[in-house]
Give the backbone structure.
Amino acid sequence: MGIWGWFLELNESRTSTGFGFNPISYSDIDAFFRLRQITPEQWEIDLIKRLDREVLAVYAEKSKQEAKKKS
């Protein structure tokens, strides 16, 4: 499994506040890799965080558009 697969698994366990999704935390990433006995490179962690920011931006834009439709 590569970075995309790791990200998808982490994304599935994402929490939310009821107002939107929370970012994937470094503690979640740490636990994920420790449980799988994987030692990721720093650039892999950085890429997961970057993917996370992009996904959150898409979610935010989608929520914004849905709110506009309701008003």
